[in-house]
Design goal:
single chain, 197 residues, alpha+beta, 5 helices, elongated
Length: 197
């Protein structure tokens, strides 16, 4: 198998693993959404009974309060789901087998590199990203005259992932940062959905 085929296989496997994690998170979110919709139906029925018993003047007040209460509960449930999904994703990233983790990091490096002469700063306890991986990335970048990455002697508390540094410019590609960015995007979508209803 040629090196390019091996690299493509590695990237394909890393992509498949990422899709698998995303699918699991999506499936869990769908199941929780169904549960929430069932609760919403229950609340709607209860609200209708209360509204009929109350006078017309109180009906709008009670409905508004019930809607507000439900909106708060719905938001709390969605945040709980997000917490669980992202904790599971974080755990799965930490537990990836070495070869899959290295494939993922190589793919992320190739996407994040701008000039190709950055330093790669890794976590203080990182043992899976080493000079061999940097050499492989440099080899892939050599066709673009960018293959001058260096593994930094400096280490930081990053967890999983790395930081690309060139002078004062830093690109944080730690999994905590990537997951937090994804979470913020999902929370924005959740907020839009909540206020549209």
């Amino acid at each position: 198998m040629e090196a390019q085929q091996v690299i493509e296989k590695i990237l394909s496997d890393a992509g498949a693993e990422a899709k698998n994690i995303a699918k699991q998170a999506y499936d869990k979110a769908v199941a929780e959404q169904t549960k929430i919709k069932e609760q919403l139906e229950k609340y709607k029925k209860e609200t209708e009974v209360i509204a009929k018993k109350a006078g017309e003047d109180e009906e709008s007040h009670i409905l508004a309060a019930a809607r507000m209460d439900f909106a708060k509960q719905l938001l709390a449930e969605k945040r709980k789901i997000l917490d669980e999904v992202f904790e599971q994703s974080r755990r799965q990233l930490y537990e990836l087998p070495d070869d899959q983790y290295q494939k993922l990091c190589m793919k992320l490096m190739l996407e994040a590199i701008e000039t190709g002469d950055e330093e790669v700063v890794i976590d203080t306890n990182e043992k899976r990203i080493g000079q061999d991986l940097i050499n492989q990335v440099n080899q892939q970048l050599s066709s673009q005259n960018k293959g001058n990455l260096k593994l930094s002697d400096e280490r930081q508390d990053l967890g999983v992932g790395f930081v690309l540094r060139r002078g004062k410019i830093k690109t944080n590609v730690s999994m905590n940062v990537l997951l937090e960015q994804a979470r913020k995007e999902l929370e924005i979508d959740l907020a839009k959905e909540l206020f549209q209803n």
